Amino acid sequence: MRLHALAKINLALDVLGKRPDGYHDVRMIMQTISMYDDLNLEIKKEPGIELRTNLAYIPTDSRNLAWRAAELLMQEFGIRDGLKIDLEKYIPVTAGLAGGSSDAAAVLVGVNRLFGLGLSTEELMERGVILGADVPYCVMRGTALAEGIGEKLTRLPSVPGCHVVVGKPAVNVSTKTAYESLNTDSITARPDIDGMIECIQKGDLYGITSRMKNVFEPGIARKYPVITEIAELLCRHGAMNAIMSGSGPTVFGIFEKKGEAEKAAAALRESRKARTVHLTRVFRVA
């Protein structure tokens, strides 16, 4: 079985405060984009999970979320057959694009289908939160309001069709580091998430993009100015807006016209400010 694990961007990201359990309460607008890792799942007679990737630095054991997703369902349902997973990584790692979470979500969906477990999307999402806060959303996909630690999801209408240029600079930012460097009491500019939801419901792309904001960005960009440089370059080349996704350091810009997006992607590659550049679209749920 071949599956696509789709990346996500955060159209808006707010951190409300730290919880007693050490996690943070967030409020975010999540959006799937048509940029993906490839997964091939195959049943094998020998017991156990065998994971292969195209990148030498990606772990292929229980440190990998995709491996743990398979183990979660196979243990719960007492599956005695083995499973072979071939994972071709294209989504940049530690980039704020939920690549690992999306791989895990795809494996949950694939194991459910491959072994005929009969779990609903909601039941897969309930199991996904055991693996990580972004996994339930990556199972659901589309446009959604995420609250709590990111696991409380409200589906929203699809955003208008548009083009996305994604650029990841040659730096890595862990989610843990991003949260540790954020003082929620000192946040002065927060995204207008309720206003963005209204614009999504109206299909107002200008209203959506004008409200894009990520509270992690100021602190991370102070440490890595290239983040601001990429965002400014994309805006100079026609982006309606450009911000950092998730805990960074990846920056994305939204474009109404494909031609402008293509020119911006070319300019970003030529600038060498981003190690990887992708031109894609928002993924709209039918």
Mean pLDDT value = 95
CATH topology descriptor of the largest domain: Ribosomal Protein S5, domain 2
- The CATH architecture of the largest domain can be named as 2-Layer Sandwich
The total tally of domains equals: 2
The global form is globular
Helix-strand pattern: EEEHEHHHEEEHHHEHHEEHE
Structural class: alpha+beta
Number of strands: 11
Quaternary arrangement of the chains shown?
A: single chain
CATH class of the largest domain: Alpha Beta
Q: Total helix count?
A: 10
**Beta-strand percentage?**
25-35%
Distance between the termini: 22 Å
Gyration radius over CA = 19 Å
Unreliable parts: none
Level of helix content? 25-40%
Largest sheet: 7 strands, mixed
